[in-house]
Write a structure and sequence with these properties.
Helices cover 35% and strands 27% of the residues. The chain is α+β, with helices and mostly antiparallel strands. The two termini are 28 Å apart.
């Protein structure tokens, strides 16, 4: 399955300055790491760690000048509503790592104080907008690996390496709220492996684990970076697609379904037949939209199962348009 990208509208939270691309490409961030090697100290790896907001615990290595924002150009991409597309930037200035506010709509604070430019020190707390707080850490490789491992353990499913159900539920609530505020489409795909019990019964549970772990990677290869893939439970997966209208969601579901159907699942030289049933639902303006969205997608998934499996069903397509 090849990768595929869908375009959505860009969102701006306003008040941003133009960004000079050349400034990003000519300045490096790795100088302290090499200097540390020369004096015998452990190499350092500057990074940002999310303390509050979306994706708590996630780490972003600062290996080059990095834009922080919600836009696709951002190396440190954060989807919180109060963050501008190009909110701030980390650069090296005269041997020091600095964070600069890019005239963002809601401003940048470091340790509680508003800044235009600030020299970063280990432990600095960076607030972007109202809800997001990052910590700057000048960590060695052991600390860096620890932070990443802790984040993965908290939000990812151990078998498939996609996000777990808890993270999906938390993200769903914020995405539904975003969809209502901005009147933008939000699609939810619920996917279920057809006749999965037959695989477990016929080939053993390790074969079932192989199918699920492979499926997780196949799904990740198709969706956009901003889409969220999660294991919802057992052999069921969920995909949350921001700014994706009904027909685009249906097209994505068909690509996934055909790709899985044609993939050569082979376990201990045994070829396994694997197909998906997919239900698709769209967000609404209801106060309980998150729960309703899951219920509608489940209903569409049930219809796909009842009408022959290996198919995608869009719940109430006329209303969704």
């Amino acid at each position: 399955m090849g990768s595929s990208r869908r375009t959505g509208k860009s969102d701006s939270v306003g008040g941003e300055s133009d960004f000079v691309e050349d400034e990003v490409t000519v300045v490096g961030l790795r100088a302290p790491t090499q200097a540390a090697r020369d004096d015998g100290a452990a190499p350092r790896h500057p990074q940002l760690i999310v303390l509050m907001g979306e994706s708590v615990g996630k780490t972003f290595p600062l290996e080059r000048p990095s834009i922080i924002g919600r836009g696709e150009v951002a190396q440190v991409r954060l989807l919180d509503d109060g963050i501008s597309r190009r909110h701030a930037m980390v650069v090296r200035v005269g041997g020091e790592l600095c964070i600069e506010d890019l005239q963002s709509a809601n401003g940048t604070r470091v340790n509680g104080e508003p800044i235009t430019r600030h020299v970063l020190r280990d432990g600095d707390k960076i607030q972007l907008g109202e809800r997001t707080i990052l910590k700057f850490a000048d960590a060695d490789s052991v600390e860096e690996g620890f932070h990443q491992a802790m984040y993965d353990a908290a939000v990812r499913d151990a078998l498939t390496r996609v996000y777990n159900r808890r993270h999906f539920v938390e993200r769903l609530a914020s995405e539904v709220a975003y969809s209502r505020r901005h009147r933008s489409p939000l699609s939810l795909l619920m996917l279920d492996v057809d006749h999965f019990k037959r695989i477990n019964d016929g080939y053993g549970h390790p074969a079932g684990d192989y199918v699920l772990s492979t499926l997780g990677q196949l799904l990740l290869a198709v969706v956009r970076i901003e889409d969220l893939v999660a294991r919802y439970g057992g052999e069921e997966f969920a995909i949350l697609c921001r700014e994706t209208p009904p027909m685009s969601a249906l097209q994505l579901a068909e690509r996934l379904r055909r790709g899985v159907e044609s993939h050569a699942f082979t376990y201990r030289e045994q070829k396994l037949s694997v197909t998906l049933s997919i239900g698709i639902a769209m967000s609404s303006d209801s106060p309980t939209a998150a729960q309703q969205l899951i219920a509608k997608a489940d209903a569409a998934l049930y219809e796909a199962k009842q009408t022959g499996r290996n198919r995608a069903v869009l719940q109430h397509p006329t209303e969704a348009r």
